[in-house]
């Protein structure tokens, strides 16, 4: 009865939000798509840039799974001149020379692809030992990559830190790499990197995806990443084929045909629950997709044994930029859930500004979660927010988040290493999280 009641309430709210959308943003319901989401006439899907054709094996990427203490996902690309099949060889990292004869071999799965020159591969290493360094390489007897090292997560609550990057979209090759490299040089012990979408500007541009992976370089082969798609990973409501070819994130549901698979998911990492929400799938107020993710995330929050909870989503509930509008379904449906179940952080992008703040009660009491929007590329907008405690514009930033047993420390950092924003959330004697001394 209670579930039916919540569903009816959610449906009524959605009908109300739909009415607001029709009045305020009719263009969202239009059949036409924005010009910037169209594929260029000279599609890069089948004709890669010349610089892409030199490597026999490249784009070796680690991704997290539902069980990061005992498994890890590995994706890569190989030139079609190499014979099939492709393998992963791995073993616990030795202190001396690696002996390939002692390594285990796992057959990789070939992904569907329309590339003329490349094939894409994926596998998941399982039954690994927690908190253990492993060495691995990909390929076959014709050609192997170099050996890389990775570290599995702990299987219990343990402090760790991560790097969070807002939208890139522009300046992918020329200017974003300095942010990415400075972040890792400053925080080499970060456990993984998190992206909130708009990795590229044109979803089908092989050149832009090439620039993104070139910028990641070998770091993506030793440090796992998680990401959600933004609107620039979609072309007229169709997810860029580059996404599924290169990334394998935890499944949304066992049915592999579900369109939310690989774009909405969750994982628990050393006492923290991370939930990836696909806000683009709800754009235009699609009732089915909105209610589907609402009920899914509600269950994940209801049954959450972790100390901290982080949701990352591309679009903002409350807009931070001039000319951008609030997302009413996120405000009216999802924000109350976040407050009800004590979510700590909402990591966002889309607006190309920096904003950090919390919703306030009529008594001016600040409520968790803390909402943060950030941008790491060179597309900027003017900041315009009536909800944020801290705002910034025309800044390339990265974020460092440190999770402890009793406190969470968040820092937003500029290209020069200056701390632009910082706050701490601590647990009090009752176990509830409170914001401590937010900067002015």
From TrEMBL:
Domain Purple acid phosphatase N-terminal: 58-152
Entry superkingdom: Bacteria
Keyword field: Signal
Gene3D superfamilies linked: 3.60.21.10, Purple acid phosphatase-like, N-terminal (2.60.40.380)
SUPFAM superfamilies: Metallo-dependent phosphatases, Purple acid phosphatase, N-terminal domain
Domain (Calcineurin-like phosphoesterase): residue spans on this chain: 161-354
CDD domains for this protein: FN3 (cd00063)
InterPro entries: Calcineurin-like_PHP, FN3_dom, Metallo-depent_PP-like, PAPs-like, PAPs_N, Purple_acid_Pase-like_N
A Pfam family annotated for this UniProt entry: Metallophos
PANTHER family xrefs: ACID PHOSPHATASE RELATED, PURPLE ACID PHOSPHATASE
Name used for this protein in its record: Metallophosphoesterase family protein
Species whose genome carries this gene: Parendozoicomonas callyspongiae
């Amino acid at each position: 009865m209670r579930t039916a009641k919540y569903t009816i309430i959610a449906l009524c709210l959605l009908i109300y939000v739909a009415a607001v959308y029709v009045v305020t943003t009719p263009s969202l319901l239009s059949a036409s798509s924005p010009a910037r989401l169209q594929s260029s006439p000279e599609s890069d899907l089948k004709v890669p840039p010349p610089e892409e054709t030199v490597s026999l094996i490249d784009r070796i990427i680690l991704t997290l799974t539902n069980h990061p203490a005992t498994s890890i996902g590995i994706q890569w690309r190989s030139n079609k001149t190499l014979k099939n099949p492709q393998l992963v060889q791995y073993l616990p990292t030795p202190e001396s020379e690696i002996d390939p004869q002692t390594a285990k071999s796992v057959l990789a799965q070939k992904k569907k692809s329309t590339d003329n020159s490349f094939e894409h591969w994926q596998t998941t290493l399982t039954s690994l030992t927690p908190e253990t360094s492993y060495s691995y390489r990909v390929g076959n007897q014709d050609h192997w990559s170099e050996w890389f090292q990775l570290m599995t997560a702990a299987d219990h609550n343990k402090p760790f830190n991560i790097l969070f990057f807002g939208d890139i979209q522009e300046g992918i090759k020329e200017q974003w790499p300095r942010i990415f490299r400075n972040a890792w040089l400053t925080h080499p012990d970060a456990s993984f990197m998190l992206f909130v979408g708009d990795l590229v500007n044109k979803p089908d541009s092989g050149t832009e995806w090439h620039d993104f992976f070139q910028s990641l370089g070998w770091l993506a082969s030793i440090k796992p990443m998680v990401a959600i798609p933004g609107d620039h990973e979609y072309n007229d409501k169709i997810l860029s084929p580059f996404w599924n070819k290169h990334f394998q994130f935890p499944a949304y549901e066992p049915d592999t045909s579900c369109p939310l698979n690989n774009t909405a998911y969750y994982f628990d990492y050393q006492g923290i629950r991370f939930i990836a929400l696909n806000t683009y799938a709800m754009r235009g107020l699609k009732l089915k997709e909105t209610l589907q993710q609402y009920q899914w995330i509600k269950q994940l929050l209801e049954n959450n044994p972790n100390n901290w909870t982080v949701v990352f989503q591309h679009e903002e509930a409350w807009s931070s930029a001039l000319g951008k509008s609030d997302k009413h379904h996120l405000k009216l449906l999802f924000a109350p859930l976040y407050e009800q179940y004590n979510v700590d952080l909402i990591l966002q992008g889309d607006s190309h500004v920096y904003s950090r703040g919390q919703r306030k009660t009529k008594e001016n009491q600040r409520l968790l979660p803390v909402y943060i929007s950030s941008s790491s590329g060179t597309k900027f907008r003017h900041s315009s927010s009536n909800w944020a405690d801290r705002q910034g514009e025309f800044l390339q930033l990265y974020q460092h988040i440190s999770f402890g047993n009793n406190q969470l420390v968040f820092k937003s950092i500029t290209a020069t290493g200056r701390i632009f924003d910082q706050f701490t959330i601590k647990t009090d004697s009752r176990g509830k999280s409170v914001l401590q001394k937010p900067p002015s």
